[in-house]
TrEMBL record:
EC number(s) per entry: 1.4.4.2
Gene: gcvPB
Cofactor: pyridoxal 5'-phosphate
Pfam family, one: GcvP2_C
Keyword annotations from UniProtKB, A to Z: Oxidoreductase, Pyridoxal phosphate
Domain Aminotransferase class V: 166-295
Lineage: Bacteria, Pseudomonadati, Acidobacteriota, Terriglobia, Terriglobales
EC category name: oxidoreductase
Domain Glycine dehydrogenase C-terminal: 369-469
Assembly and oligomerization: The glycine cleavage system is composed of four proteins: P, T, L and H. In this organism, the P 'protein' is a heterodimer of two subunits.
Protein name, entry field: Probable glycine dehydrogenase (decarboxylating) subunit 2
Record's GO cellular component terms: cytosol; glycine cleavage complex
Residues spanning the membrane: none
Family affiliation: Belongs to the GcvP family. C-terminal subunit subfamily.
Molecular function, one GO term: pyridoxal phosphate binding
Amino acid sequence: MATTEQTFGGTPRKVTAHLTQNEKLSFEISSPGKKAYRLPPLDVPEVDPSTLLGEAARESTGTLPELSEIEIIRHFTRLSTWNYAIDLGMYPLGSCTMKYNPRVNEFVSRLEGIAEAHPYQPESLSQGSLQIVKLLQDCLIEITGMDTITLQPAAGAHGEFTGILLARAYHQSKGNTRKNIIIPDSAHGTNPATAAVCGYQVINLKSNAQGGIDVAALEQMVNEDTAALMLTNPSTIGVFENQIHKIADILHAKGALLYMDGANMNALCGKTRPGDFGVDVMHLNLHKTFSTPHGGGGPGSGPVACKKILEPFLPIPVVEEGSDGQLHWNYNRPQSVGRVRAFYGNFGMFVRALAYTLANGPDGLRQTTEDAVLNANYIRKKLEDVYDLPYNTPSMHEVVFSDRRQVKNGIKTGDIAKRLIDYGFHPYTTAFPLIVPGALMIEPTESESREELDLFVDAMRQIAREADENPQLILNAPHSTRVSRLDETTAARKPILRWKAHPASTPLTPDDTPAKEW
Ligand SMILES: *Cc1c(COP(=O)(O)O)cnc(C)c1O
């Protein structure tokens, strides 16, 4: 792929042009009779599908694209060049911890005995897989300082749901039905959504001037109706909650629990442990902190670690060592909240997270945390004279600027993010957290070298200059992509998830969007 040496606004761009700007849908390049596979002659008797499937058997497969093998390979390979990925460059999407997915994780997860293991395999033949589960559990318990864990939830939000179900079951077992969950205004949107889905009223807690918990306000708020506080630490502005012990004491004094959203554990791993600072239940995102693929490559994994008091309620099954020295799944747990996912969770992600943890070891994990924090602070120092820093509390693994200085030229955080694409970077997180109007939330992670950070800093500084000298350049960005500004609201609210064949008499034209039919 040739690097384009084109310039925009006088600066060389890091981006490479897309291989093709006009890839048709596979349906549109289809021609009847083509096949991308070749099967050997049938050597067993042919069976009528309806004898196997009954009424579920379909006579027609509908219209499917028909392409040769090389056509379909080229189609998807070309499409893949439209994607941005951590394997292409820095992905500073704040709060998401888009770190490198080490190749050793992929190597280990593809070993035959692991990749081909089946969830219905008898336990006696699954001891290796069960040991992977057990060892990862033990590592995560050690890292978080908690007493026990479930690996079942399939994402961070799913972990929150599971954790709050545990809290609810705990309160119910004590005969009380507490009604409220307190959530700071800086929280990730999944926190209030989780509380509501679990049947709780959400009480909003305003952040203090440093962006942390207003401890006096919290003390006023907590009472016998409070089930829990859901707290992200470090917070979504990348600030460590330095009153965390006090906060835990306030909750515990009223019989409430402290839930920690552990999505930001990349700032704490190997340095401090939530279990030691009063947290009762928390989730981890293996696809953030523990280097498993995040985004298109998923799936995710959101283990929930908790204290002993919540152990009886853990989802079934839980892995246990029997008197025979073998590992078993225990389903006989009468107080369990039940299953939260089919089988045992996203096992392939456990393998990758364990490979990452063991490859780093305790010192490596600590170094990772220190490097992540150093990188965020390097960016903060290099950009704070050109972008507004609304909270100057020390940053942990991410830094949040605002667009206050650029807004006077009509340029908002989203515009700066679009322009960053022209410089070859994935945008940072825009307009979140909500307590910072016009937020630019930047999380480099430990994966980035000094050289890559400097390229990013140069791009951001150049954009700040453009904002003063040529705002229109930014407002029309991105200039380097196949499509420029999209209608994001319509894309989110009315996604077109299916392609429908047009009758042969009305061939597709470029203006003829199949979307109209849906
Ligand atoms: C990413 C994130 C979540 C949700 O995790 P998912 O795996 O995307 O469901 C929750 N809280 C915070 C602070 C996060 O950054």
